[in-house]
Structure formats: structure tokens, C-alpha cells
């Protein structure tokens, strides 16, 4: 592979990550600040694009079950954020603003039309950082998985033994052991020793100092709430019970938001309960596409202002009701 500056996409000829995701191709592009970022691509290029952004230190291939489930109908991208997966471990750029721009630059390079952006854990904040900077012109919908979004109540202090509570410095052995324990703790159902070992190996690529920078973005938590509420695009908030109250407040105050709680899953709930999550995501994608098509028809059809207001109010009312009692995969 030969690097090319200026945002050129560089394609590989092999399946992704040593065959971890057989349906995907590994590709790279160069960001505006010169970093080489890797991503996975699968599915028809002309279809609706779904972009997955993983969490702290995680590779994009952690979404392998989702890539496989979606790639027959959707154009699927899964980013390795800088320093993660197979992307370059840069010595700079570990801020919310830069990582948000990385997402936007990938969309400009590899996606046609608005995308459904799926962020998990730290990927929630990186995705919202891009929305805060660029608006929602390239957004068709947001899926935010298991992280705070700045709603009340605020999360509690870090628990000893978790990633945010790791002391500095750590020996290489201590760091690896803690990372392995952190990864094991992401799952309610053990995905297997080989799977955990692959994740652990890839989760140790950054320096400890840069890892901690990712856990200390220099914005108030209200920044994330403002980003979510800056868009009227559909928002699906998929969380464990820890974030239920934030989700309740989101649904109450955002006209197009839904919440689904996975009661028995771990932090990587899309791995623990992949079939349920995939059904949920596919339903959201289909509904988002239908709403977009309906909006296109409304934009091209003359109607009186009073009719427009009535229709919008009814749609908003239905959206709020569906969050709480939809009998399908939202439950």
C-alpha cells in the first residue's frame, strides 16, 4: 500500500483484519493533518451508508456481526480511530475536535449522501463532536450506544480498577493485565479467550498518556447534550440500565429520539446480544429511510401551512409514543 496525501482513499486487496470480517475490505485514507486512518468497507457503494465508530482503544472489527448482517443491503463503514485498530498511532490529534473531524473526513471520502452514524462508548462522544462542528447536513440518523450524552443525571466518579481510574505510570505487565480485565468486563457473555486476546492486543497500541487524553476531553458535559439537541434527525439511544435516566430525559426533550435498554447485556451489548441489536438497528434504518422518503415527498408537494404543522405534530407524537411501547424490536 502506498500512502497518498490529501485525503485519497487507499484500497487493499485482502479481507479485513486478517479475515476477521470476511465480508469487508480494509482501506485507508489520509486525513487533513496527515494521519493514515484505516477503515473497513462492505456492501454496495450506492446504498445507504452506515458508519460504525468504536469505543476507547477498540478496533472497528468489533462490529463484525453488524457488518455481516447489514452488508447485503447497506454500504457499511467501520472506522479504526487514530491510534486504534490498524490506523496510524500518531503523536497528535487525541482531542474531541480532531477525532470528530476524522469522522467527517471519512464520510467525505467514502460515503454518498447522508449517513447513519453509529457510535459506541467513546465513539458516542467522537460522533457528537463531529455533529457539533459540522451540523447534520450529512447525517440521516444517530445511533448512540452505552455512554453518557450530557443529560441528567451526571455519571458518578470512576470506580477503582476501571480504565478511568488507572494510575500513572504502569508497568507493561500491569497495563496488559488491566486492559485484559477491562476487556473481559465489557461482556456479560464471554466471547472466548481468542477473541478477548485479539482485542487486548489491539487495545494496547497507543501510549498510556494518549489513552488518558481520550478520557479527559476538555469540554463541559453540556457540550454533548447540545450536540444531540442540535439535530432533529432520528436518534436511537441503546444503553444498559446505568443510562436509563439520561435516556428518559433525552426522549422527553428531543422530538425524534428513542431509547432501548438492554437489561442483561454488558457494555459491548451489540456483541453480547448481536441478533437483538441487529434487528433493532435494521428496523431503525428502514424507518429512517422511510421518513427520509416521506420528507422528500413533502418537500416537493405544495400544502397549506396548517396542514404541514398538523402532520409534523402527529409525527412527533407518534415518535414519542413508539419509544415507550412499540411492540416490535424497540422493546
Explain how this protein is built.
This protein has helices at 64-70, 96-110, 122-134, 172-184, 193-202, 208-213, 222-229, 244-253, 269-272, 274-300, 305-325, and strands at residues 9-16, 21-30, 36-42, 49-53, 75-80, 115-120, 139-145, 235-239, 257-261. The chain has 331 residues and is α/β, with parallel strands linked by helices. It has one domain (9-149, 158-325): Rossmann fold (3-Layer(aba) Sandwich), CATH 3.40.50. Strands 1-2-3-5-4-6-7-8-9 form a nine-stranded mixed sheet, sandwiched between helices. It is globular, with a radius of gyration of 20 Å.
Strand order of the largest sheet: 1-2-3-5-4-6-7-8-9
Low-pLDDT runs of 5+ residues are: 1-6, 11-16, 303-331
Which fold does the CATH topology refer to? Rossmann fold
Question: Shape, please?
Answer: globular
Mean pLDDT equals 85
